[in-house]
Amino acid sequence: MRSVTAHLPVETGQVPDPDTGLRLLSVHAHPDDEASKGASTVAKYVAEGVEATLVCCT
Fold it and tell me: For the chain, does the N or the C end have fewer beta carbons within 10 angstroms?
């Protein structure tokens, strides 16, 4: 098993303020699953200003 550190949009040591708005976490088993399973829903929320993060578990 290997560990991969995600590249976060914040500097090391910073924690996003939880009171700044909604966040959406989309978790999928395969790299192409987000395109066929929920992409339009994620796009809708991003268009409304929700911060979205995608996780692919392969």
Answer: N
What are the tokens at 53?
């993060």
Read off the tokens for 9: 């949009």
**39 pLDDT above the threshold of 80:** yes
Residue-wise DSSP of 1-58? --------SS-TT----TTS--EEEEEESSTTHHHHSSHHHHHHHHHTT-EEEEEE--
Give CB contacts under 8 A, 24+ apart, made by 44-47. none
Six token digits for residue 14: 């910073």
Instruction: Determine if the pTM surpasses 0.70.
Output: no
For the chain, the domains span: 23-56
